[in-house]
Each structure stands twice: as structure tokens, then as C-alpha cells.
Amino acid sequence: IAPALAQDTEKDRVVEAMKSGDAKELAALFIANIDLTVKESSDVYSKAQAEQILRKFFNENPPVDLVIEHSGVSKSGDKYFIGILRTRSGYFRTTFFLKKGETGFLVKQLRIESSKNDF
User: Fold this and answer.
1) DSSP per residue over the chain, as a string?
2) What is the pLDDT of residue 117?
3) How far apart are CA 9 and CA 74, in angstroms?
């Protein structure tokens, strides 16, 4: 495995926080108001609200692993990552977008959606 590039630090932090179910660490990487989808509910939330929603999700679905299957860059220059979050209660398709800010990349959108287990 090639060493991770410095610019992928934020991605690795997001992945590690999700693998460990650490809502607080994850929320620390969010922009002020994040576009968050968890299962069927989707809205724009403050960091604090997003952290509570994710804490509840991780409590109900303790994470086991997160494997990034695809990544790229959107037209607007945001980096995106698509993967499968494996939890004790099932699999979730996970997508997150990193937007470049003054201090590096922050998560501007996070989607955790029920997977059809079609992989």
C-alpha cells in the first residue's frame, strides 16, 4: 500500500472516526452547517445537532469497518469518497464530500444510507 498523501489526512480522520463510531471526532471535521443524511432523514444541521444524530446512529449500529471503494473530485473541486460502512446491524453505503477551507478540508456533506447488500 502506498503511503497516504498529506492531503488525505482529513479523509483518514473521517474514516477512522467512523470506524470507531466517534461522533465527537467526526463532528470536529464538519463545516458549520453540514448536509447530513442518516438512513431516511436528511437535512442541514449544525455541528452539534449532527454530532447527536451520529452518536445515536453509532449507538444503534456499532461500526466494525469502513472500506472506501471509490473516490474522486467534483466539478467544484470538492473531494468525495464512497464506501461501505459495516456495522453489527448491517451495511450502509457511506458518501462524504470534503470542501477546501482556509485550514484544510472539512466535511460538507455526509450520507449514511441503508445498503441493499448488493456487493
Assistant:
1) -PPPPGGGHHHHHHHHHHHHT-HHHHHTTEEEEEEEEETTEEEEEEHHHHHHHHHHHHHHS-EEEEEEEEEEE-TTS-EEEEEEEEETTEEEEEEEEEEEETTEEEEEEEEEEE-----
2) 55
3) 19
- Asked if 81 and 108 touch (Cβ cutoff 8 Å), the reply is no
Amino acid at 78: D
Q: Which of 110, 95, 98 is nearest to 10 (CA)?
A: 98
Say what the pLDDT of residue 118 is.
Answer: 47
CB contact at 8 A, 83 and 67: yes
pLDDT above 90: residue 104: no
Reported as a single tens digit per residue, the pLDDT across 40-75 is 999 999 999 999 999 999 999 999 999 999 999 989
Please answer whether residues 58 and 38 qualify as being in contact, where contact means their C-beta atoms are separated by less than 8 angstroms.
Answer: no
Phi-psi region of 104 (alpha: psi -120 to 50; beta: other; left: phi over 0): left
